[in-house]
Amino acid sequence: MNDFYKSSDSFVCWHCEKNLLDNRYVIQDNFAICLNCFEEKYSNHCFQCNEIIGIEMEGSRFEDKTWHRKCFNCSICKLSLINKKFAYRNENLYCRHCFIDEFAERCYRCNRSLEPGEKCAQHDKQLYHKSCFVCNACQEPLVNGKFRCRDHYFICRSCQMRLMAIYCIKCHKAIENDGVVYHNHPFHSECFVCTNCTNPLGNQRYVEYNNDAYCSKCSSSLFIKS
To answer: Based on the number of CB atoms within 10 Å of its own CB, is 72 exposed (0-12), middle (13-18) or buried (19 or more)?
Structure first.
């Protein structure tokens, strides 16, 4: 670090030959240099305003760059970054808030930034705040994959059953998976049974008689005369 000295002998600045008697100067490489020449030739320039950072000025340094303290501000909100967390990207300084807002990934639903390290939900390659990943109908959190999504409209299984489900005409319960439609009436696969033996007809062939369904075995014994 360079030090200031008071001259006691008759001598001049190495660069401009200004008399240094009773003037302040700096010793640089064993040469006496007046303050003006020292600032002009050796002082750092502020990365923000490109003005000299004077020998008596306080500056801030990051990596190989220096700033006046008054210039060491967030490039977006202009908040002073002295003694604060900051980020440096693309030759710009950012406070923590502006950096997150500018560069962090965003929630697909609310478009607000996702905080670094924040736990989030992901669906169809899109990220969501936990608080945003909820059923559009009841606003309850979506958990364990028990929901349906169409065009980013989410509905939990409970609301789906309550609002959109088709109900079996036989047991009057919601049909959650594939069912059977017979004469425009929905059935669970297990509820669509032979009228005679009550065995589920499932995907097997059946015979209709007087609007009732019969399995092949029962239809043969009941309706085909030998």
So the answer is: buried
Taking alpha carbons only, the member of 165, 192, 194, 193 closest to residue 177 is 165
The token pair at 47 is 């990365």
Q: Which domains does the chain have, with CATH numbers?
A: 43-100 (2.10.110.10), 117-163 (2.10.110.10), 165-224 (2.10.110.10)
Q: For the residues of 146-215, what is the DSSP string, one character each?
A: -EEEETTEEEEHHHHHHHT--B-TTT--B--S-EEEETTEEEETTT-B-TTT--B-TTS-EEEETTEEEE
Residue 20 pLDDT > 90: no
The pTM is what?
Answer: 0.45
Task: Tell me the per-residue pLDDT of 65-111, one tens digit each, with 9 for 90 and over.
Answer: 888 888 999 999 999 998 888 888 888 999 988 988 888 888 898 98
Residue with tokens 């990051």: 62
pLDDT tens, residue by residue, 198-225: 999 977 888 988 889 999 889 888 877 6
DSSP letters spanning 116-157? TT--EEEETTEEEETTT-B-TTT-PBP-TT-EEEETTEEEEH
